[in-house]
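Supplementary material to the annual report.
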Amino acid sequence: MARDTAREPVKTGPDYLEVRLGIYRGMVRVRYFEKRAYDLFLQNLVKGTSHLAIGQEAIAAGVAAALRPDDYVFATYRGHAHAMLRGAPMVAVMAELLGRENGLMGGKGGSMHLTYTEGNFMGSYAIVGAHLPIANGAAWSALYRGTDQVAVAFFGDGATNIGAFHEALNLAATWKLPVVFVCENNLYMEYTPIRKVTAVERPAADRASAYGLPPVLVDGNDADMVFETATRAVGLARGGGGPSLIEAVTYRHGGHSRADPGKYRPDAEVAEWLAKDPIPRYKERLLDEGVAAEVLERIEAEAAAEVDQATEQAKAAAPAHPGGLEREVFSDGGATWRR
Amino acid sequence: MTYREAVAAGLAQEMARDPSVVLIGEDVGAAGGVFKATAGLLEKFGARRVKDTPISEQAIIGAAMGAAMTGLRPVAELMFADFVSVCHDLVANQVAKARYMTNGQVSLPLVVRFGNGGGLRFGAQHSQSVESWLMAVPGLKVVVPSTPADVVGLLAAAVRDDDPVMFLEEKALYPTSGEVPEGEHVDELGTARVRRPGKDCSVIALGTMADRALAAAEQLQAEGIDCEVIDLRSLVPLDMTTVAASVAKTGRVFTVEENPRLCGWGAEVASIICEECFYDLDAPVRRITTPHVPLPAADSLEDAAIPSAERVAAAIREGLG
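Predicted assembly:
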């Protein structure tokens, strides 16, 4: 059975501790970065729009810890976390948000299109659901080339109601592709509660059976559970067992995007979820298990320093140069459409 | 060889040469394609390389895109070109923009094949000429072959190109025949061809309309009008060098377009001619197009809509009047 080849998570020993400290580091770096990004909006240094993952870090960090460096990751416009967890340098991400010359894509993509192919982070996609079929393509390619790489696609709860979700899940299941679909269900599709616009209670898990897949529901604010769940799904995919659909339930602390204060959410609900903040929760668990406080504090201090440095380097850089405007439309490096 | 057989021949030539070339689409494998343009490829290259898909156009283009990003050179068939509207996001927002938005991190060496255009009485949702839709999207290359030799040569060039190429096969031309060079045949994208030299006017056409323009030129020859017929073959890249040389010689220009009137490719060509070849012109550029209507199904209506050789000849006669 393919399922038997799934790698079971290492639950004890120094390796597992290393993994969990890595998850903590990942969550903290993302949290500090996102808070800084928000501050920079308020200073009007980040233009356009941006979608922060504050509150949702456990999913990104937990899944990232279950992946190999050569696996492929596809994310949404709420993608800063995923980009950095696949190795995109924080300064380049920050500079991209600020439209600087040293941005991850030289200023051409912006917050919603972060891509870092060096880390096989294959892009952030700003059309809801569009990247699920694309992740299939990477998985199909891995299968065809016999590399045992896995593709992961993160998406929001809102994406489960768009056609591309259905097309992608059905194709992945029929072609038995090594792909893991991770629904980051933060309970709201933009401003509307997902339950008000969805025929089933669990937007992803309740639909899994339509594709012959088991329902997988996980507490998306528990990084350990996310890591375990992702490890099983990734192992299944790598071992030839086909796709998985994971619904990780979480909550964003802020609004949908920069323009949204999130006032449509009941105060009690917000308070309840703030109490379930994945980062303090994880820290407490690690401390309870005997990890020294100074180890975690060092991680926090390093992340804070990294964010400060990234901010300074991004702010000091020149704006994206207009000379790049007509570059990289085509593979010859230019934009020439005629002769 | 027929135009239809040339598609399979071109694909077979490239698949035999490069194991990273794979083919996907609805009915492309066991059925040999709804237009029978991929007949025999499943038998020759196996189910690993020739894959049937569900009716899921977004899934098809997405799979091609993800595969192209990660080392394959996929060819995806969308069947009727009209169906590009079902997956326009994947084509226009994702495939077309990926290289630019990522500042060159991503390359998409993929080909999307379409059965394009009218003439087969299929009605408005299976007959459109969509080349002008695609031409308007930065990042896409758009190729329309008009002969079996061009099908093989331009398809080979499209497969080898590192950019996404929209390859529009003209449905009305599938049964037509022509010579195809022996052995490996690879052409060059972005090169127009003078199909008929002439001195009195330049008739610029594409795809099925190239044949209509040639037929019109034959009719006019008998009346002493000597038309030069240019087959553009590719809209992006657009070979304005060949066009400008012809305009300099003739001073009179007609475009023959199957697409509905507004924003058809001829409007862009005419605009460039006006900007760059104005002093070579002896008369205004005239566009001969399908009227700005959805294509009707009935023989008499569709024939009245799409430019015929007679209509092209009449427009040229009147224009040169």
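Residues 3-17 of chain B form the longest helix (15 residues).
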